[in-house]
Amino acid sequence: MRSTVLFASLAGLALAPSLAGAQEDLQKLSQDPKQWVMASRDYANTRFSPLDQINASNVGKLQVAWTFSTGVPRGQEAAPLIIGDTMYVISPFPNKVFALDATTGDLKWTYVPDQTRAAQGVACCDVVTRGIAYDNGRIFLVTLDNHVIALDAKTGFEQWATKTGDINLGETTTSAPLVVKGKVFVGISGGELGIRGRITALDEKSGKIDYIAYSTGPDKDVLIGPDFKPFYDFMKGKDLGVSTWPPDAWKIGGASVWGWFSYDPQLNLLYYGTANPGPWNSNQRPGDNMWSSTDFARDPDNGQAHWAYQFSPHDLWDHDEINENVLVDLELGGKSRKVLIHPGRNGYMYVIDRQTGEVISADPYDTVNAYKGIDLKTGRIIPNEELKPDLNRNVRNVCPASPGAKDWQPTAWSPRTKLLYVPHQHLCMNFKTSEVGYIAGTPYVGATVDMFAGPGGYRGEFMAWDPVQRKKVWSIKENLPVWSGALVTAGDVAFYGAMDRWFKAVDAKTGKLLWQFHGGSGFIGQPVSYQGSDGRQYVAILAGVGGWPGVVANYQVDPRVRNAALGFAGATQDLPSYTEGGAELLVFSIPKEEASAAPPPQPKP
Amino acid sequence: MKRWASSATLVLLLSSPALAQPDTDKEMGMPVGSSVRSESGLPLIQATPGAVAPSSASANPILHVPVTDLHPGNVNFAPRIDNPLADDPNAATRGMRDFIQFNCVGCHAPNGGGGMGPSLSDRRFIYGAAPPNIFLSIYQGRPNGMPAWGEMLPESTIWELVSYVQSITHPSGPNFGKTISRSPLSPKVQQTPAEFLQTTDPWGFTEAFSSGQPPNGD
User: Which of B195, B197, B198, B206 would you mutate first to test chain A, the one with the most A CBs within 10 A?
Assistant: First the structure.
């Protein structure tokens, strides 16, 4: 073990000169159409590829260029990165990282972290990871057992490893890190195990922890200080992260961080959402439970909060709000506004002023009966009192179900169509609370959940949303939840994968199905696009069903017990009749002659 | 008396949420590359005070219980160890309460359907289905995520849990395997979900398999 570390350090030293070169600007790098340098492609989280070789007229000719197995047939949620000519892929636990020639698929190196197998026992919803990060010649990964690791991107040798969480407190890490201004930002998972949510910022060169910003507790821990100016009154006051909980409950109150970071370089603000409060049994935690189910805007340099917006004070249904914040400028009421679009887990599509935290609009985009709307004066969501989950009451037919109208699966934004492409589910549930005791490292839930298809009998949807008109422009109903991310390109093609093994390309303007491919396992990954060294445009996605809705097909879960997998088994109990787990990276392109015959680049929007 | 012991453990935990806070701050946040660590990433276990004889298998027959069907030389001397509560008609009911109280339900799901941990409802036991196998899996934990409960729960509580697990697992059917199919539909049935019914005999209450649509009661 020691000799390996020493070797790694030496290798790092030997390569130091190449790393010490001009600091790369990740923001600039993310604008190169050929590459895909962070999971969400850019700091704004658009997942828009400016490549247009593949377009609506030729996408029908897409075929497999090469494939690669990650070797682990569990949920493949990660986005591949493409830096220069190299593609980087991470597997589910044990989180191996592979570097491949992005054009030929040749394997350059493999990194195998030595993490404890026991971590799998405290991962709530499959042993997934959502990706890796890159900056200045280093690849950053986070293992399920909470080790943040820097690798030399060229050689795959380890440069540093820092532990940022403890599995014996129920902590795991599943989200993709993001690098901003030389700091690696990582979240923490375990909202179902009574953890205390937080983000950790580490120095990208040394791995030393720069600061931690907690989601609960006193202001000094949450990094709330003089800069903090929430838009709404209910979030103003001292130490609300303590006083909105029963005594000490904030210490085990969840509010984990397992979704997406976005960053606005002009405003110098880092955005992310926090998860549900724990336990799910809301009767055990009277109060607003701050800062769970909350968007934070922070200064990445010191972590200080500038504003917050709590989507669901005193969450009743496990409606985390870790969903992505897509940073766009919209023409609203005759003027350009810097906004973020947050497709809420609670079923509302939020448009929020990203400078102030003011909610400009919030409209339901799926069946919602758990809430009556959002009071734009107070900023508070209005729960449906008829569905109050009193202790031991079986509340029937609550919509959206616990995973919400949309969970982690990220949307894509096209600056050409000005539409948001939204993969999501359409589920309702029965929900019954019960008393639960806290035992460190074990689930702290207190709810029996049973999910099922929403009205109409379908379980998922891929749709395009116009945030200015505040409406759905087109919609594709899917039999199963759509648990993959979305990609949209300058060729005006949108891509997504379905859990029944179909990977699909649709017309970004109309939603018309243009091409589909039957993969080896269901899709829950993040499609990306890049240009190879041969000048061709490629589209890549990992196949391999899993995640919260998919453990019924890739792990030992009984589909006849509807309450299994925290109730998701009820909604996907027939998934094993469509797919098994898988571990295959699929890379597609159009044939060479078609690629060279592609029309000249389309005009910029 | 036995019940008191287990409740006391829980009360202690509930009244001390501070216990949850990382005592490992010193360890966390420090680069680990150069430091010695155990396989688990945690400090190496110190020798237990009060030494135990290294091999007391003869005094503890349960240590002879194999966790595999393979026996070198084809010599299988697995002792027959039954659940000491096998004749206690209320053991499974107490076990069901334990299952909820000690958060087993959070990982293995109501009625043992599985999720974070594997299912217990379908007679597929990775580490053996015999009562002492189930006892040892709870007592010792298992390497892919099952915590070791031996220091936290009295043995009587663990045997109650064994009674409950035996009670919720599906009785063996006539077939060697199972078929998964949409047409004709297989499996054909699902349990009445736990939000409607809490029972130690969930396979005694089934309804038509609803393929992701609402349960029959809705």
Answer: B195
- Cα distance between residue A83 and residue A139, in whole Å: 10
Least reliable range by pLDDT among A118-132, B4-18, B153-167: B4-18
The candidate with the shortest Cα–Cα distance to A214, out of A142, A308, A145, is A308
Q: Name the residue of chain B whose CA is nearest to A392's CA.
A: B195
Measured N-to-C along each axis, helices B91-101 and B2-14 cross at an angle, to the nearest 10 degrees, of 10
pLDDT digits (tens, 9 = 90+) for B19-70: 334 444 445 555 554 333 334 333 333 344 455 555 566 678 898 899 999 9
Nearest to A537 by CA among A138, A33, A20: A33
Give SS3 for A243: helix
A211, two tokens: 């600061």
**Cβ neighbours of residue A379 closer than 8 Å, sequence gap 6 or more:** A231, A232, A234, A235, A309, A359
Mutate to test the interface with A, among B34, B36, B116 (most CBs of A within 10 A): B116
**What is residue A240's DSSP assignment?**
H
Contact A572 B212 (CB under 8 A): yes
Q: Peptide bond before A291: cis, by omega within 30 degrees of 0? A: yes
Instruction: Give the pLDDT mean for A48-63.
Output: 97
Residues A230 and A309 sit within 8 Å (Cβ to Cβ): yes
Pairing assessment for the beta strands A198-203 and A209-214 based on DSSP bridges? antiparallel
Contact A562, A573 (CB under 8 A): yes
A448 to B194: CB separation less than 8 angstroms, yes or no: yes
In order of A51, A80, A106, A288, A538, the CA distances from A535 in angstroms are 11, 19, 17, 54, 9
* Residues of A classed as catalytic: 192, 276, 318
Query: Which pLDDT does position A592 carry in this prediction?
Result: 85
Instruction: Please list, in sequence order, all residues whose beta carbon lies within 8 angstroms of the beta carbon of residue A384, skipping any fewer than 6 positions away.
Output: A369, A370, A371, A372
Backbone phi, psi, residue A163, to 5°: -85, 130
Q: How much of chain A, in percent, has pLDDT values that exceed 70?
A: 95
Measured CA angle at A581 (ends A480, A124), to 5 deg = 80
Please indicate whether, in this complex, the C-beta atoms of A569 and B113 are within 8 angstroms of each other.
yes
pLDDT for the residue numbered B5: 39
Q: How far apart are CA A54 and CA A494, in angstroms?
A: 11
- Give the whole-angstrom CA distance, residue A427 versus residue A421: 19
User: What sign results for the dihedral spanned by CA atoms A53, A59, A65, A69?
Assistant: positive
Q: What is the mean pLDDT of chain A?
A: 95
Q: The tokens 């929020």 sit on which residue?
A: A352
Condensed to tens digits (0 to 9), the pLDDT of residues B105-137 reads 999 999 999 999 999 999 889 999 999 999 999
Q: What is the pLDDT of residue B211?
A: 98
Strand residue runs (E) in A392-468: 394-398, 412-414, 419-425, 427-433, 447-453, 460-466
Of A293, A95, A66, the closest CA to residue A191 belongs to A293
Q: Are A484 and A519 in contact (CB under 8 A)?
A: no
Whether the upstream peptide bond of residue B54 has omega within 30° of 0, thus cis, is no
Contact A111, A142 (CB under 8 A): no
